[in-house]
Specification:
By secondary structure, the protein is mainly alpha-helical. The protein has one domain. Helices cover 82% and strands 0% of the residues. The protein is built from 14 helices and no strands.
């Protein structure tokens, strides 16, 4: 429940337009935003790059093609993921069920990254040194925003407060308003765990460093296209979990703790709140099924 420009972030941004950001705008926004997802992705990319007309044309062409592939092949699969979510909401889920949902999202993001990798390789060959430094500067700005929102400077106590706010917003989006008793129970759950915010921030920085090393190497060495594709695949393979064994264990433990929180939140909801979540998922299933038939 917890991203670098162009590669995984470039791809994840498109799927997140469907699976996350759009959902928070309400189901009525899904159709309009998805139909314009390729244009929205270009709009999102430009502040990182200040694309030239030629780069914008290349991005437009490849995103249009990617979008068509995504609509035809991925949206029907997202329906199956949403149905898995319905079983979670209406049943008696375990932490293993929550982890399975998270793993399903990771697998789908890997599929997107692999599909787009050749196009990303072509785009990387167009980047200038100035654009790469612009990426680095933009990342630094976004990192400062992230650190502020996560209250990293306020220690574990502040980070728990930020996590409580974030999880409450998500819970109330799906399950509708929480009572004072439910809010107190959620706060108690969060206080019983490490926030993990500093760890995930460090992982964010690690991914960004790896990404900048990759794009700078492409810009300076100009390796063959097939070599760039392999570099991108290697980067994607180490994206989700740290290579360091001790940090990998910590990441797995934090994900397990988040899954346990998800199950605990579900357990404190009422039948009416679970019906509210089931209805939201029904609407999304309908929208995704219809969108997959259009184009």
């Amino acid at each position: 429940m917890n991203s670098p420009p162009l590669t995984r972030r470039f791809i994840c941004h498109l799927v997140l337009l469907v699976l996350a950001g759009l959902l928070l705008q309400g189901c009525s926004a899904v159709r309009l935003s998805y139909d314009n997802a390729d244009s929205l992705a270009r709009w999102w990319l430009d502040p990182y790059l200040d694309m030239s007309p030629e780069q914008d044309s290349l991005a437009r062409e490849r995103l249009t093609r990617f979008h068509a592939w995504h609509r035809k092949t991925q949206l029907p699969d997202y329906v199956s993921l949403l149905r898995q979510g319905q079983k979670f909401v209406t049943g008696q889920p375990t932490a293993a069920d929550a982890l399975s949902l998270g793993d399903g999202i990771i697998r789908r993001s890997r599929t997107l990254a692999e599909q787009a990798t050749p196009d990303i390789a072509d785009f990387l060959l167009t980047l200038s040194a100035e654009q790469i430094e612009r990426i680095a500067g933009r990342q630094a700005e976004r990192n400062a925003d992230y650190a502020k929102e996560a209250q990293l400077a306020d220690g574990e106590s502040g980070q728990r407060k930020a996590r409580y706010k974030r999880l409450l917003e998500r819970a109330e989006y799906w399950f509708d308003n929480f009572s004072d008793e439910q809010k107190a129970a959620l706060r108690q759950l969060i206080d019983g765990q490490s926030a993990g915010s500093q760890f995930w921030y460090e992982e964010r920085l690690r991914r960004q460093r790896d990404w900048l090393t990759l794009v700078r190497q492409v810009q300076s060495v100009r390796p063959p296209r097939e070599r760039i594709i392999q570099m991108l695949r290697d980067y994607a393979a180490r994206f989700d979990l740290p290579r360091d064994p001790a940090r990998r264990v910590q990441a797995v433990d934090l994900r397990r703790a988040s899954a346990e929180i998800a199950v605990a939140i579900h357990a404190m909801t009422t039948a009416a709140q679970r019906a509210h979540a089931e209805h939201k998922l029904d609407e999304l299933i309908r929208d995704f099924a219809e969108l997959s038939q259009e184009g």
